[in-house]
Design goal:
80% of the residues lie in helices and 0% in strands. It is mainly alpha-helical and 144 residues long.
């Protein structure tokens, strides 16, 4: 009897993993794990770009540390957010989405990099979509 129940549970899990919504959840989870970690680490190495150029002067003026050191701190936050998405996507995804919204505000107030702000809006929407999918599909999520 227990073997039959185990087989049914295994087939149900396999069927759930083959659904488009579960696959979308896994794709988004991978993307919002890897991208923030890589962007965060690159704040220290400037391989992708010079990240300091994206810091609005008014944000740097609020900080007791230099703009560069502030960007290094932001890099740590971004990498940690990516790790959090990997471990607890229901918690990490809205944090990444909110962080991206803060980046958008920073960029818009600079009066520059509107293209990057638009891209980050799309990323924020994807992070919030991951949050909604994780609420149902992540381990411990709300099942219907």
């Amino acid at each position: 009897m227990s073997t039959t129940i185990a087989n049914i549970d295994t087939r149900a899990a396999a069927a759930e993993q083959s659904t488009p919504s579960y696959q979308a959840y896994q794709i988004l989870r991978l993307g919002f794990t890897v991208a923030p970690i890589l962007a965060g680490i690159d704040k220290f190495f400037h391989v992708l770009c010079n990240w300091d150029q994206y810091l609005a002067p008014w944000v740097a003026a609020l900080s007791p540390v230099s703009g560069h050191n502030l960007m290094l701190a932001f890099g740590v936050v971004e990498a940690a957010a990516g790790i959090l998405v990997a471990i607890k996507p229901r918690l990490g995804a809205p944090i990444v989405g909110a962080w991206l919204c803060l980046i958008i505000v920073n960029l818009l107030t600079m009066g520059a990099y509107f293209d990057v702000a638009l891209r980050d809006l799309g990323l924020a929407l994807g992070a919030f979509a991951l949050w909604r999918l994780a609420s149902e599909l992540a381990p411990g999520g709300e099942k219907r």
